[in-house]
Structures are given as C-alpha cells and as structure tokens.
Design a protein that fits this description.
By secondary structure, the protein is α+β, with helices and mostly antiparallel strands. Helices cover about 40% and strands about 20% of the residues. Strand 12, helix 13 and strand 13 form a beta-alpha-beta unit. It binds one RNA strand of 77 nucleotides through helix 14.
Length: about 425
RNA sequence: GCGGUCAUAGCUCAGUUGGUUAGAGCACAAGAUUGUGAAUCUUGGGGUCGCGGGUUCGAGUCCCGUUGGCCGCCCCA
C-alpha cells in the first residue's frame, strides 16, 4: 500500500508520539529556564567546513552532506557545539557574562541504526561560556541532574560519571610520557572498560609495550572512585599542575555536595570521551542498570570558540539525547499517558439546536475552554458515549426542549448530575465550574 | 561497512506436505438506538502476503536477489 516509506533511521511523530516528545521537551525547557539559561536556535544546514574544521575529515563519513545549487558544500548538523561556538564567538564581546544558553533541536548522523540511536534525533544542549573555573561545571551538572529528575528519575535510576582529561594529562606527564603517548594512553583508557587489557594493543603497536610498572599505575588510576583516592594517589607524585587541579576537583565536588547532588555523581576516570575538542572535566550520565547507552554527555572545551575563528573563550556544555532518554522513561513507567481531553463536549439535537450551540461554542472557546462537538448529527445516545470517551468534564446539552426554554442543560460528566442554565449565564456558570 | 534474524490488515498474530475466493482478535465505521455513558449484538470498510525474479499445472508457503526492521560488531559518544 505504502509506496513510499520513511528513510532509514528517521522517525515520524503521530499525535501520540508528538505528545510524548512535547512532554519531554516541555520539562527540559522548564528546567533550563529555572536555571536561567536562554533559549536559542540556529540553522539545520551548515557549511561542511564547520565540522571539518573541528574534528577532521573522518567525521564526513557520518554527515548528511551534499553540494547545494550554488556549489557550496553543506551538511545537516550532527551536533550543536560548533554552531553555538560560532554564534557566541561572533558576539562574544557584547554578551553579558556568564553566557548561559540552551537549545532543543534535531540532529542528523548517517550511522547504522541501533536501539537508542537513529539517523535523526533530538538533543537538549546547554552551555556556559566565559567561565574558566569549575563553577560552570557545577551549574551544568546541576542542570543535567534537574533535567533528568524532573521526570521522576532518581539516583536509583541514573548516575553521572565525572572524569577529567586535564588530570590524566598532568598525571601522565608527571609519569614521564610525551604528548603523543599521552593521547595514546587516553585512547586505551577510553576502550579499557569494554575490552579490558586488550585495549593496550593499539598503544603497543604504535609506541611499543608500556613499562609494566607504568601500566600498573595507569590501571590503578583508572580504579579510583573518590576524591580522597585521587588525593592519596597524587600526593606521591607532586608536580606543579596537579595541586591546583585537585583544588578544582574539591571545588566542583564540594559545590555539588552543597547542592545536595553528590549522590548522583561518581568519580570515574574511565570516561575520557572521544570528541577531540574536550579539554578538561568531562562527564556522562548512564542508567544504573547499564542496559542503555549513554543518556547524556558533556565537558569543557576551552579552545573551540577560538579554533572556529572567535576570541579565546572558555566553555562547558552537555547534551541529552531524546532516544535513549525516552527508552529509560518508558522502562521506568515514567511516560504518563498524555491525554488531550476537552473541557466541554456539546450534545446537539438537530440543525436548529446546532446553530444555538455554535454561538456558545464560539464564546466558550474565546474564553479559553477547549470545546468539542460532533460534526454531524447523530443519536443522543451515541453523543453521550462520545462525550464520555472524550473525557470531557462537562457536557452541554442542546435539545429541542432546552432551545424552547432558552436554557442549556449542563451535565457534570464526573458525577452525572445535571441542571439547566439560562443561555445568557452559560459562560459565567462554566467559569465557576472550572475555577473551583 | 560486516554478521545473525525477521517481514501476512492501522496493531498483535494464525495460515496444514505447495492446492478453491488469505483468516482471527483488537482498533475503526455503520446499524439496533433522534433525550443520557466505557456494555452487548449485527454488519461493513480495509491486503500487490515488503518488493522483484525463479521453480511449479499451481507459491503467503520452496529458491535467489533486493529493500526495510530488530540484535550484535565496526565506528561513534
């Protein structure tokens, strides 16, 4: 029957699907506004260069890209970060600090689809620009937690793993590794959770085998799960960068603790995140059961605004994807059936009665009530059934008798009581009903 | 990009060793029912059996290809 089908990985939103999506967007938006973030939006289509400049050519494989009629190489946006960096960079000197912005938008990646991942998806993005210290991380991680908790999720359902690319860098530097080798080790760390010690293979092929003692230290570092553990390990190392960095950690975790959010956050240096532009703290949210892919991810990217042609401007941000998030809510039974019930359903006897009803329907709708009525004449019994099914609170009955008496019969569909009201007082009576 | 698996009505599924005009439940619509509620009964609309080719007297069923879904890998986060 359907000759045309949706492109692979793309979704269609029938009314009940869109109601669910709107519910999610509404709570995300509410959380961001409570935190004082301002909403922005930007083009879906961007110059291909914007993404090449950021992550190198290999990301092209994942882009929906093409040449437009003007010969420009363009791409559907695969993420928001480069775009917002351009927006903020262009007006950085005029914007009041701190710059706290958020968006809810659709993104496109040409990837193999899997559970929780499609070729088009929505993300909530929140970013803070202009704040180099961990105060920005506190604010963002708090927002992330609020975005998840506003749906009824708790620390039983999800947690945030907090890590730090700087700390890794300083630590490995203090252990005597050069920059290329440090990046190699970070690659190992990224894969270690999944592959175990197999993950060292790639490093060994490139740089030769790691010294056994060194490898032991790296693995031990990976196991650290607390600030106290970090402090213990690093106290023996020294180095002039590690001390201040630990102070940042204390400030960040102390701030979250003071907000009452410490129970959501775990130190976990196994997170390094692949995206090339992260420079400091990085964090990811996961469901506790570990059944789903990451719910959200983010981190600091202090160099990106400048790399994209703006001024030097520190930045932190995170994104929540809608697909995995919706799966989690569904699994926890936290997606309420979102009704779209009318306030009032009109039961109409015939054509003359219909005209009388139309006048009231218009008045009531103007007054802000959602009013439904059958488009075609049908039996009263059927109309009452329809009224009940619609889950309206009130039925207004327009029959021959009522019309003759100049009244409307109001039926409370909840307790099945009814009474007559003079037409002229209808709006007032309805208003009284709904205001109590 | 690789591998596994699946595809019959809007949804969930049945369909015999290959055999007449492909069925059921749910949903939708009409009627019983033009003055009162989630019920019941009756009836109806809805299918290129994902698509294309092959084998056969005959294919929803067997074979090949293809498209799409799901799962895993790769990749990515």
């Amino acid at each position: 029957m359907a000759t045309f089908q949706t492109l692979p990985g793309f979704r269609e939103f029938y009314p009940e699907d869109l109601a669910r999506r709107n519910h999610i967007f509404r709570l995300w938006r509410q959380s961001a506004q409570v935190f004082g973030f301002a909403e922005y939006d930007a083009p879906i289509l961007e110059p291909l260069e914007l993404y090449k400049a950021k992550s190198g050519e290999e990301i092209e494989a994942q882009l929906f890209s093409f040449v437009d009629k003007g010969g420009r190489e363009v791409a559907l946006r695969p993420e928001m970060t480069p775009t917002i960096c351009r927006l903020v960079g262009a007006r950085a000197n005029a914007l009041k600090r701190p710059i706290k912005w958020f968006s809810i938008a659709e993104f496109y990646r040409y990837e193999r689809m899997q559970k929780g991942r499609g070729r088009s998806f929505n993300q909530f993005n929140a970013d803070i620009f202009g704040e180099p210290g961990p105060e920005a991380e506190i604010e963002l991680i708090a927002l992330l937690i609020q975005c998840l908790c506003s749906f009824g999720l708790t620390e039983q359902d999800f947690y945030i793993r907090l890590s730090d690319r700087n700390l890794w860098f300083y630590y490995l530097e203090a252990l005597g590794l050069d920059e290329a080798r440090i990046h190699g080790v970070l690659g190992v760390v990224d894969r270690h959770e999944k592959y175990g010690d197999e993950a060292f293979k790639a490093y060994t092929e490139k740089f030769g085998a790691l010294d056994a003692a060194l490898q032991g230290k790296i693995l031990a570092f990976l196991q650290i799960k607390s600030l106290a553990g970090l402090e213990r390990t690093l106290a023996t190392i020294g180095g002039d960068k590690l001390g201040p960095r630990l102070a940042d950690w204390r400030k960040l975790l102390g701030g979250l603790e003071a907000m009452g959010l410490a129970r959501y956050v775990e130190v976990d240096l196994g997170v390094v995140r692949g995206l090339a532009y992260y420079t400091g703290f990085v964090f990811e949210a996961f469901d506790r059961k570990g059944a789903l892919r990451a719910l959200a991810g983010g981190g600091r990217y202090d160099d990106l605004v400048q790399k994209l042609g703006g001024p030097a401007l520190p930045a932190v941000g995170f994104a929540i994807g809608d697909m995995t998030f919706a799966l989690l809510l569904e699994q926890r039974g936290l997606l309420p059936a979102i009704g779209s019930a009318p306030d009032i359903y009109c039961v109409i006897g015939g054509e003359r009665e219909r005209m009388a009803a139309f006048a009231d329907i218009h008045l009531l709708r103007t007054a802000g009530y959602r009013v439904e009525y059958p488009l075609k004449d049908s039996a009263f019994g059927k109309q009452f059934k329809a009224a009940a099914e619609s889950q309206a609170k009130l039925a207004l009955i327009y029959g021959t008798d009522e019309l003759a008496k100049g009244v409307v019969k109001i039926r409370d569909l909840t307790d099945r009581t009814e009474h007559e009201v003079p037409s002229a007082q209808l709006v007032t009576v309805v208003r009284d009903f709904f205001s109590t």
